[in-house]
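Progress report, Aim 2. The chain analyzed during this reporting quarter is listed below.
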Amino acid sequence: MTSTSTSADAFAGQGDNILRPRPRKPLHTQVSQLSHDANGDSDHANGTGATSVTGVSSGRSTPIPSDAPPSIQSLSTARKQVRAEQRRRIFPTIEFASRVSHFDPNSDYRDFHGFFNLFWIGLAIMAITTCLRNIKDTGYPLRVQIWGLFTVKLWHLAIADFLMVATTAVSLPLHKVFRAAPAGGVLTWAKGGMAIQSIYQAIWLAVWIVIPFWLEWTWTAQVFLLLHTMVLLMKMHSYSFYMGHLSETEKRLRALDDPATASKAPAYLYPTPENPLGTVASPKQRAVEAAAEASSEETKEISTPNEDDEIAQLREDLARELTSPMGNITYPANLTWANYLDYLCCPTLCYEIEYPRTAAIDWQNLLSKVLAVFGCIFLLTVISEEFILPALTDASIRLDPTLRAAAGDSGPLTALEALLVLAETISWLLFPFMLTFLLVFLVIFEYVLGAFAEITHFADRHFYSDWWNSTDWMEFSREWNVPVYNFLRRHVYSASRPHVGKANATVITFLISAVGHEIVMACITKKLRGYGFICQMLQLPIVMLQKTELVRGKKTLNNVCFWCSMILGLSLICSLYVLV
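Predicted structure tokens for the chain:
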């Protein structure tokens, strides 16, 4: 019998022809008894030292010659000791060691995919039981109050969305005009181009916010168009402002062809995670550092760079700025319609000259994500139809004096009774909104963005981090929505920090984010109340409180507080907008 024998060979002659898998190699010596009993040792009587994987051992070892090398003798002695130790243990031994549980904070275990599958199984059970209850009550598996809204004025939505996407393309010809303008002219990006682009973006945003109200769309169509409007606004802003920066950089680089009249001001390095403070890339300072590195260790002589060295270093800084991080494309080679269309389809809000790409489309992965999108939309509609809408409708009837009178109830509610109705409604909405929040996260950041990443070969799929472990709202804002966080950090925080400082730049970033969220809520509910704006701005003092010594470092407590405030906040804001 050789070492390539199969499990069928091991059971030959026993009347059992079933092919069995090879026994798994035991992980610990304490449980290796069974393997030795079935497989034998590595020094069996074949005299070759080869191991028969599944053969039956005679239980005897080949004697070791007395003149064998010490290494062979030590190995033989070790095997004999282990076998002797195992033979003394008649009852099976269970290994005990110092280990932590999988859920322990000190555990290195991170794979909880089974709970993700359980989450979907639970949602499937909820949908099935809901359909069965509806069939019992109405004869139909689903209610149609929200489902019918999806098809109202659908062609209006399709045409408007196409025109909205098309009008963002104005940024490309505008940029070509700004680039072609002579240095120092009125139409350059630094002079008038930035103002023209900003005015166009403001008008564009106002038009596409007003159109759904003017056409009297349903709230479902309005939500879709508004969210797409916000996405395209950020894309257009990132494209135009980054390209404007590149056009000014190109003008400076070309001006250095005549150093006598060119500006020699150093390039500014904007704040990044690696360079959080932002610094001035001084050619003189860089030349001094390079000379210091090049000098010998004995002399430590540093020669002061001349003007030619400074200009050469400045040219290098500017040229590097015009080249993509991957080094394959240089501005203005990216000024094409194909590049702009590709950017619109890529799942990112920050424009770059070039992105990392995958080699091919994983069609199975793409199909699964597309199906998951429709599955999430189905579950979101079921939850809204069955749990959210009935609770809000019932509360509206109980709080509205006119509707109360029509229902046979007389007299207005007292303030305490109204608060009790509001509190009851919030409690009924807690679990549905928690599920809605999780499904919205999955459908956007995992499935929609993942599908577009697959279609465009976009290789960077880091759309979120482990935000569910967040201990404060600042951490949540960084990890829950990575594309929006990158946009705000690049185009709001980094752009404003050199002028107003770190603290004010943080406030401005939160302010703009809060205004954007309030616009979304106002368009959905057709009410301008400011509840969402106030709640988001309250995150700043909460973050400051969480950084105090009293609660800092208590991760479990802070994470529980985060989840409670998240779930309660969603239900509270929805109830206030609808009922108050």
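The radius of gyration is 34 Å. Confidence is low (pLDDT under 50) at residues 1-59, 296-304. These observations will guide the mutagenesis work planned for the next reporting period.
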